[in-house]
Amino acid sequence: MKDRPRLIYDLSFNDLLGLMQQWGLPRYRAVQIWEGLYRSLWKSPDEFITLPGNLRERLSQEFTFQALLPGAELHSSDGETIKTLFHLRDNHAIEAVLMRYKTRRTLCISTQAGCAMGCVFCATGQMGFKRNLSSGEIIEQVLYYARQLKAHGEAVSNIVIMGMGEPFHNYEETLRAIDCLNHPEGFNLGARRFTISTVGIIPMIRKFTQENRQVNLAVSLHAADDETRSSLLPINKKYPISELISACRDYVSQTHRRITFEWALIRDVNDTPEQAHKLASLLKGLLCHVNVIPLNPTRRYQGEATTRERAEMFCEILSQAGIPSTIRLRRGIDIQAGCGQLATQNTSIEG
Ligand code: SAH
Ligand code: SF4
Question: Which of 72, 127, 158, 191 could potentially form a cystine with 106 if both were Cys, beta carbons 3.0 to 4.6 Å apart?
Answer without folding.
Answer: 158
